[in-house]
Amino acid sequence: MELFNNIFVNVNSTITFSQFSEMLFGSLILGLILAVAYKFQSTSSRDFVITLSLLPTIIAFVIFLVNGSLGTSIAVAGTFSLIRFRSATGSSKEMLAVLLAMTIGLSIGLGYLTIAIVLTLVILIMMLILQTLNLGKIQENRRHILLTIPIDYSYDGIFEKIFDTNCLNVELLSVVYKKKKETLVLEYDVTFSKKITDTNIMKKLLETNPLDVVVNKQFPKKKYL
Predict the structure, then answer these.
(1) Which fold has domain 142-216?
(2) Which long-range contacts (CB under 8 A, 24 or more apart) does 50-53 make?
(3) Domain boundaries defined on the chain
């Protein structure tokens, strides 16, 4: 018995109701499973979840309709090239979900329903396992600190002394000059010791008279992966 049979293996110019149902409900069910798994321990808009649920079905039917027709394929590619997505850049997990939805649609559109099912289950199980293990999660006592000081402020060693006394690790990430306000913005990556709280570190930093202090638990998103 062949495990990965093509459901359209006997299709010439027509498609049976059974094959149509397999393609339709298979893509809808896998899209729904993908959306539910993506929502696990994630925050996202309802529109994105709905899109993720229906994307495999749309792609499956597009691939099925253009399968074997070079002219139609070029026309569809030209049509999609006119679409411009103006939404904000997504996270790596969102990119993974969209790519998986497209792969599901491609597999089902070409008739490989079993491959789509196996691929979906394997990828989603691995994603849930890795997410449960909290790989790459930011430490609870790690902070992103921004200090704004005057341009003539002599800051060498002042803030490092405070951090060295109260923190396990400190790294100066950047120094940015703000021309309009004539200020410097110091960006630090700091890991507190267990006995230090946000209130403690804020009080110690305010004693140095900076113009502004921002202590973030969440690090800003990078422009690269």
Answers:
(1) Alpha-Beta Plaits (3.30.70)
(2) 52/97, 52/98, 52/101, 53/28
(3) 17-132, 142-216
